[in-house]
Amino acid sequence: MERAQKAQVVEELGHIFSDSGAIVVCHYKGLTVAEMTDLRARMRDAGAQVRVAKNRLAKIALEGTPSEGMNKFLTGPTVLAYSEDPVAPAKVAEAYAKENDKLVILGGAMGEEVMDENGVKALAAMPSREEMLAQIAGMLGAPASNLASAIGAPASNIAGILSTLEERDAA
Fold it and tell me: Could you tell me if 78 and 26 are in contact, meaning their C-beta atoms sit under 8 angstroms apart?
């Protein structure tokens, strides 16, 4: 790889490290091309991406960034999973590592917080952005739904009583 190409890769990795909500570092030794393609597809479906880069270039790109402490994970064959959504890469990596023992989660970073393997697993257990928005929408809609049913309840009760009286008179 020429010097200009290396500089371009370092710049791209710098953008990844600065713009991502979370980054997960994994060892992928022994993964076949088909398995790596499957991992990439799962990440893409979750809104995340996967990047394999030389560790030396990644360490250079990490210099001066808030997640600089993550360079201790960059040894051996590593793959970077990243996304703007802080939960997506951790969820997909955790699920894939459970299915395929060749993918080993080493750690990661979320902003200035450098996480070990347990930190990434804890992040994977959190609800995603979409799940959180759905929960909030449900909470916001619940009081209105309760109010509507409370307002409609007396009319419903009267209708039920009238229906019962009508059936009794008909019999």
Answer: yes
